[in-house]
Amino acid sequence: MRTLLIIDVQNDFLPGGALEVPGSDAIVPVINRLIGIGGFDLVVAAQDWHPAGHGSFASSHPGRAPFERIDLNGLEQTLWPDHCVQGSRGAEFSAELDTRRVEAIFRKGMDPAIDSYSAFFDNGRRKATGLADFLRGRGARELWLCGLAGDICVHYSARDALDQGFAVNFIVDAATPLDAANEAAHLAALRERGARIVTSAQVPADTSP
């Protein structure tokens, strides 16, 4: 079963958002086209869903600024601007994203004491989101990943998917990085772990009559 996993295509990561990923709006039509070609048996999404005052927010640590690093409950943590707060407009999926075929949404980052980049686990791998079990229950074996940000949440989701035994395809033109300078290194690391780095043109279309 070929599965498209759409990660964090939310307003706060898009232009004008609290944690804008440069050029992120360009991937939305690419993802919509991938959904439209009908080559996927299953479409699933992940959504950052932080409570107000989350421990990963710089505002939760007086005197600290966004993008500083601290120790948060035993893990190195980059501090972020407040983003994807539960129930806020910033946490909503882009209005331009076609979500009609999304069968399930897995929310992450809800524990205020630990961040969750991956759609599968929190950063300490202390709690699972249930995504892996859901995919296995549906018979999914081959995952195609896209979304935001390519070098953070999509990257760590791809790593965990590989660790969970899934075949992983990272759609590079549908996963914009926050830090473009490190994109090549992140892609090389995924390739070394066994992921395929592909473009949207390599995604098979539905060829059934």
Automatic annotation (TrEMBL):
This enzyme's EC code(s): 3.5.1.19
Residue ranges constituting the Isochorismatase-like domain according to the UniProt record: 4-202
GO terms, biological process: pyridine nucleotide biosynthetic process
Leading EC class: hydrolase
Keyword Hydrolase: yes
Pathway named in the protein's UniProt entry: Cofactor biosynthesis; nicotinate biosynthesis; nicotinate from nicotinamide: step 1/1
Highest rank taxon of the organism: Bacteria
Name of a matching Pfam family: Isochorismatase
UniProt cross-references to InterPro entries, sorted A to Z: Isochorismatase-like_dom, Isochorismatase-like_sf, Isochorismatase_Nicotinamidase
Gene3D superfamilies in the record: Isochorismatase-like
GO molecular function, one term: nicotinamidase activity
The entry's keywords: Hydrolase, Metal-binding, Pyridine nucleotide biosynthesis
PANTHER family reported for this sequence: LD05707P, PYRAZINAMIDASE/NICOTINAMIDASE
Recorded family membership: Belongs to the isochorismatase family.
Record-linked NCBIfam families: PRK11609.1
Name by which UniProt lists this protein: Nicotinamidase
Gene: pncA
